[in-house]
Specification:
The complex is a heterodimer of chains A (113) and B (114).
Chain A: E1 4-7, E2 10-13, E3 19-25, E4 31-37, E5 43-51, E6 54-57, E7 64-66, E8 76-78, E9 87-94, E10 103-104, E11 108-112
Parallel strand pairs in A: 2-11
Antiparallel strand pairs in A: 1-3, 3-8, 4-5, 4-9, 5-6, 7-8, 9-10, 9-11
Chain B: E1 3-5, E2 10-14, E3 19-21, E4 24-26, E5 32-39, E6 46-52, E7 60-61, E8 64-69, E9 74-79, E10 88-96, E11 102-104, E12 108-113
Parallel strand pairs in B: 2-12
Antiparallel strand pairs in B: 1-4, 3-9, 5-6, 5-10, 7-8, 8-9, 10-11, 10-12
């Protein structure tokens, strides 16, 4: 089955630690995205990538880093520089260059303890 | 920059009634797309319906239809015959033409009551 997979579903991290969230898709989509969602709010774009080995900062990129070494994978690292990392993180993918639907993963809920 | 405005933070509707969720957008692009997504309490985003800026007819998908008024820059979602399972957060989303960078509205929490 084609789709987009995020892991883990729940993640706990101690303050000061970096943590990497996984996002894999087998839809052959060029574009991939990371969003952050805080309780009762909409999604805010962290980073996006339209092609392998290229990515752009979104609206709230500070304290985050990404890589796009493979078309299928777009991992997000939440660094210790991110002052308030506790949130729900959603990864998405879509066909680049066309206004078609984006497919979302199930999300990762990150909690800093 | 694209901007999506959803002015209804919460809505209530009775089962089997129709409900309209409002969305206005602000773009200078000639080519754009507008989506509606549903987010149940479990967290996943579910695609509902899409409207392209050049589509002449309003989009429909089952019980979902989009009331697209280009001159007013509005793209309201209409859900007919509401069901309890429709209770969720609904997001209006803009996709800029050619770039596919999605801009989300703040969402409307819909609660369907018996």
């Amino acid at each position: 089955d084609g789709g987009i997979t995020q892991s883990p579903k729940y993640l706990f991290r101690k303050e000061g630690q970096n943590v990497t969230l996984s996002c894999e898709q087998n839809l052959n989509h060029d574009a991939m995205y990371w969003y952050r969602q805080d309780p009762g709010q909409g999604l805010r774009l962290i980073y996006y990538s339209q092609i392998v080995n290229d990515f752009q900062k979104g609206d709230i990129a500070e304290g985050y880093s990404v890589s796009r070494e493979k078309k299928e994978s777009f991992p997000l690292t939440v660094t210790s520089a991110q002052k308030n990392p506790t949130a729900f993180y959603l990864c998405a993918s879509s066909i680049h260059g066309e206004s078609t639907e984006a497919f979302f993963g199930q999300g990762t809920r990150l909690t800093v303890v | 920059a694209q901007k999506i405005t959803q002015t209804q933070p919460g809505m209530f509707v009775q089962e089997k009634e129709a409900v309209t969720l409002d969305c206005t957008y602000d773009t200078s692009d000639q080519s754009y797309g507008l989506f509606w997504y549903k987010q149940p309490s479990s967290g996943e985003m579910i695609f509902l319906i899409y409207q392209g800026s050049y589509d002449e007819q309003n989009a429909t998908e089952g019980r979902y239809s989009l009331n697209f008024q280009k001159a007013r820059k509005s793209a309201n979602l209409v859900i007919s015959a509401s069901q309890l399972g429709d209770s969720a957060m609904y997001f209006c989303v803009d996709a800029t033409g050619g770039g596919n960078k999605l801009t989300f509205g703040t969402g409307t929490q819909l609660k369907v009551e018996l």
